[in-house]
Design brief:
- There is one protein chain.
- By secondary structure, this protein is of the alpha/beta class.
- The protein has eight helices and eight strands, in the order E-H-E-H-E-H-E-H-E-H-E-H-H-E-E-H.
- It has a single domain, classed as NAD(P)-binding Rossmann-like Domain (Rossmann fold, 3-Layer(aba) Sandwich).
- The protein has an eight-stranded mixed β-sheet, with helices on both faces.
- Helix 4 crosses helix 8 and helix 5 crosses helix 8.
- It is globular and about 50 Å long.
- InterPro entries: NAD(P)-bd_dom_sf, SDR_fam.
Amino acid sequence: MVKEPRRRRWSANDVPDLSGRTAVITGANSGIGFEAAKVLAGRGATVVLACRNPVKAQDALNTIRTATPEADVSVLEMDLNSLASVRKAAEALRAERPVIDLLVNNAGVTLLPYGLTADGFELHFGVNYLGHFAFTGIVLDAVLAADAGRIVTVGSNAHRMGKIDFDDLHFAEGYRPLRGYARSKLANLLFAFDLQRRLEAAGSSARSLAAHPGGANTEILPSVGPVRRRLKRVADRIPNPIVHSAHMGALPTLRAATDPASKGGEYYGPRGLLKMTGPPVLVRPSTASRSAETAERLWEHSERLTGVTYSL
């Protein structure tokens, strides 16, 4: 684990006042995205919930306003399954919000049967990675317009099992749900760290960081079929040393996004057993996720696949 000075546990109470700042969070209607949005709104940020389902997003907005009546929260409809939807949402956001202080690439799918996005990408790779690559690229000017804007991309411990096969990015052969998910999360980290390198090379004050929630108990965990649903109900009642709440799972994202001491290229996650639970600390990603050569090649493929070229 990366060493940092010993201090008391970092918590949501450490999030500074964010009045006058705008935060955009994808997948913010539930799970760690919702928990992060709730905290940011409570600290005064203007929060945009970028979500696929506008009904669920509105429910989340109402819940946040119940907790913080003065909260400035809005909904942006965006389906990461479709690049057309991503582009439409990103351009609308850029027109309405010329300055974005915090962009949190949080939305995702996990352990799905094999399927393709509207654009023909394997679902995990297309939704978790390529959709966010395109969205970030289109709104990047608004982040660069902020005073030290931040982009936080949410990864997973599963990235350590991921492999990038440039000859078969979309798993025409050998697909397994965990392989698809792990590849997408490795791609997320390669992107986050490569974006930081590119920001530095451009002399930008913006920062790109990454975080992972550990074993957060959220709706992203699949519960397909009656047997799995029953098992999940039982598991939810049993204390688990490697599973913590969605609120705790959101803390690494919040620290990466708001801690004044956080630096570009850092990776935050829980400090507890198997790095699955506990307060957020600096953690060490896999060696593969730090490969500048792989990241550059992936970036070239991503620009070609999405049609989005970054303005750096």
